[in-house]
Design a protein that fits this description.
heterodimer, A: 232 residues, mainly alpha, B: 236 residues
């Protein structure tokens, strides 16, 4: 194919800087949306647990929207669609401070909140109702039963799925490139365009993704084993 | 919203066909079904390697699965779109590169689902087949796969939903599918992005929600049939 691999260009100077900046943006997107997503997921789970039909329906609708629409389209809706609703002054300000990354965080966090709340819910559901009854019958009130009996088991059951979502979120940050956030994939494309070093640019960025993903997978398997629910 | 649908409805359904390339929703569906169809045999091979006795095959398959799971689909699409033509020496249509990327990506995921289906079968099935003197090939194709695949039908339909959603990434490399058509509409009608992307989101929602509901129904039917069979066996 007449192509000489030469990593020297992308491993130093301007191109390496661009890729490292992309990595930083990727990690920021990942960390912030993970935290917001997790907090929102807990809130959604609590709201859905309350026996009130309208709010339950709203949470269910929120979850179904985020599960059945491609995440790229969710990004488009925020980035292209939401901007129209805002007053022009707000938009100008947002564009000055970097609206793309903000919208990307919002979209990724809401998406993860929907998936993670489903994981929490299925964790809660897999605890047999008799456990609640037993806890209540030994004199614990509802909150006490939740605190000492149900939740310690439920979060352990939900943990593997939550860790799986963490990996999916990390990979999902790449889609922010679709709305012009200069994260890792975006920079890979840019460096490739500028330097014509296709294999080096994509190779380096793919390697970075793989290293971090493997670290997440490795951490996940350690945590899941450590906190596995053991039935004696 | 209605004016947009009236004006661009046909474009969204079939793209510029018959005056140009097929596109829109039809293309999204074609890409998704073709990807699933090509993924299926590859995933069965991966699943058989993962659950088989051969150590080297096992490590190759699990290496493949782990590596693919560690990379975002977008990077695979970039590799297929920008790097693959250089390797093979001639350009490929963007649609094919999207399908190639999805097939590689989904083989890893669907392979794991089918492997789980195989591992979920009672050991007695294989032992009974061996006791009857059946070799590996007939055991696999007559005993193991028919049951394992039947049990994971909901998982396979669920992957189709995932593939439909993943095909939206084609818009980044200008594959004329649904999202790309909508981006074109958006650049024509610059003042209505909320309606335009609302329609786009709604279209995917209807499609994928219907499929995920179907998955639920299938799951219940299959588990009913499975438990039903056990009862019949016990009674007999």
């Amino acid at each position: 194919m007449g192509y000489q691999l030469d990593f020297s260009k992308v491993l130093q100077g301007e191109y390496l800087d661009l890729i490292l900046q992309g990595l930083q943006t990727t990690l920021i997107l990942f960390a912030i949306s993970w935290v917001i997503g997790l907090v929102l997921a807990v809130l959604l789970t609590v709201v859905r647990a309350i026996e009130f039909k309208p709010t339950q329906f709203l949470v269910a609708a929120f979850v179904e929207y985020h599960r059945n629409v491609p995440i790229l389209i969710q990004l488009f809706v925020w980035y292209f669609g939401f901007a129209v609703v805002l007053p022009e002054a707000v938009n100008d300000y947002l564009n000055d401070v970097g609206a793309e990354i903000g919208y990307a965080i919002v979209a990724l966090a809401l998406n993860k909140a929907a998936y993670m709340s489903e994981d929490f819910r299925s964790g809660l559901r897999s605890i047999h109702p008799a456990q609640m009854e037993a806890a209540r019958s030994i004199g614990l009130n509802y909150l006490g039963a939740m605190r000492w009996v149900i939740l310690p088991q439920a979060w352990r059951l939900a943990l593997p799925a939550l860790l799986g979502q963490t990996l999916i979120l990390f990979k999902g940050t790449s889609l922010a490139a679709g709305i012009g956030v200069a994260e890792l994939s975006y920079q890979a494309r840019y460096v490739e365009e500028q330097s014509f070093r296709i294999f080096e640019a994509y190779g380096l960025v793919t390697a970075i993704y793989m290293v971090i993903s493997f670290a997440i997978m490795w951490g996940s398997s350690i945590l899941s084993t450590r906190y596995r629910l053991r039935v004696k | 919203m209605l004016e947009i649908l009236q004006e661009y409805g046909i474009l969204l359904l079939i793209g510029e066909y018959p005056h140009g390339k097929l596109g829109g929703l039809a293309m999204t569906l074609i890409i998704s079904f073709v990807s699933l169809l090509v993924t299926f045999p590859c995933a069965i091979l991966i699943a058989l390697a993962r659950t088989g006795d051969s150590k080297p095959l096992k490590s190759i398959a699990s290496g493949f699965v782990h590596c693919v799971r560690a990379i975002p689909l977008l990077m695979l699409i970039f590799w297929a779109y920008f790097a693959l033509p250089v390797v093979i020496g001639f350009p490929i249509d963007a649609t094919y590169t999207l399908i190639i990327a999805i097939v590689v990506y989904q083989t890893a995921y669907l392979g794991e689902i089918i492997a789980a289906g195989i591992e979920g079968l009672p050991k007695g099935q294989m032992e009974a087949a061996k006791a009857l003197g059946l070799g590996y090939i007939p055991t696999t194709f007559k005993i193991v796969l028919p049951q394992a695949l039947f049990n994971v039908v909901p998982g396979i339909v669920n992957q189709l939903t995932t593939i439909i959603k993943e095909s939206s990434l084609g818009s980044i490399i200008a594959v004329p599918e649904l999202s790309y058509a909508m981006l074109q509409v958006n650049s024509n009608e610059v003042t209505k992005p909320l309606q335009i992307f609302g329609i786009l989101a709604a279209t995917y929602f209807v499609l994928c929600f219907a499929l995920s509901q179907a998955t639920g129904v299938l799951e219940r039917r299959i588990s009913k049939r499975r438990t039903g069979r056990v009862i019949v066996e016990v009674v007999a």
